[in-house]
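Sequence in, structure out.
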Amino acid sequence: MRTNKICIYNAQIILSEKVIMGHILIEGNRISEVTESNFPKVKCYSDVTMIDAEGCYVMPGMIDLHSDAIEKEIQPRPNTLFPIEMSFYELEKKLAVSGITTMYHSLTLSDEWGVRNIDMVIEVIRSINRLKRARSMINHKIHLRYELTFLAGISALEGLIRDKSIDFMSYMDHTPGQGQFKDAEALKTFTIQQHGKKEQEVEDFMDRTFMNQARIDWFKLIDLAKIAKTMGIRLASHDDDNREKIETLIACEGVLSEFPINMETAIYAKSRDIHVCVGAPNIIRGKSHSNNMRAIEAITNNAADIVCSDYLPSAMLPAVFHLIKEGIKLTEAVKMVTLNPAKALGLDCEVGSIEVGKCADLIIVEMHQDYPLIRKTLVGGNLVFQTDFQVFNTERVEIIC
């Protein structure tokens, strides 16, 4: 039974600009004290739950502003859908274990199939908003990705903005020949595999996309983005491949470029004070699955400042420590998954760093053979995940009676 106070002590605390040895006191759902101390222990109090973080890092909980993991949980294989409620509860357990304390579930509003069908997307959004209010382990938010060539979906987008059903949104254009899919055949292959559709169906879909691209109403889109901004819903662009797209984002008063295709565009976005987000899987694998810009090169060239999970939440924390091996300071690597996304989305008054007064979203990380493992996850001061196992020598010992 936890008390109203928690003390995490004997900890290597990762602050925004330095790492200190000390302890953190949590009262209710807030951090009330962060103290640097050379002493390995602090005094135990009867009304405080004491957590010994010996040998571990304590860092802010990670904020994942782009992950379509919920889509994979609902539809793990083409044409195979699972109940939304089951998918929500099972995924959030994985997120807590991965150290993600705020998740922006990325849902695609398009004229595709399955989990990306408009009716299904709206149902998922309503379900997540309902389920998170009833009971949740972590902070759940909605990132709506609007496919610009889905002309019939713009009224649905406006409705979701006006009733504040979403928390973040992005504009994206997957028309072949530009952006992520310069090669039309690559898009066709991806779509067939993703949705399990016949070649003719996909070709018809691509033809429709080409025709609709010329009819995109940018006046309406700019207007909607400005309405969203007044309601606290910030805008990103997706798969930018030239300066003109960054300028269009700025015209929409957007704040972030997700997965720019090339270094030139990423550097230009940063020069225009636009946040740039890259994917953790790209960092771990050392390359893009679409043969586009390498994330590590963008980071080492100061052309990216945020890392998201993209499609694999478990890649977030390993990516942070992979960056350290690439010469990035620990504090800077941690900020890419905590304070920087918090600033981009206007959450930094509440979360993103270990500071007095902020919400106690924290993770305790053990380095095991140079690999980061989550030992504990706290969300709003509540311990939502912990493992206290010890690694034993499993070598068999012969016992002679």
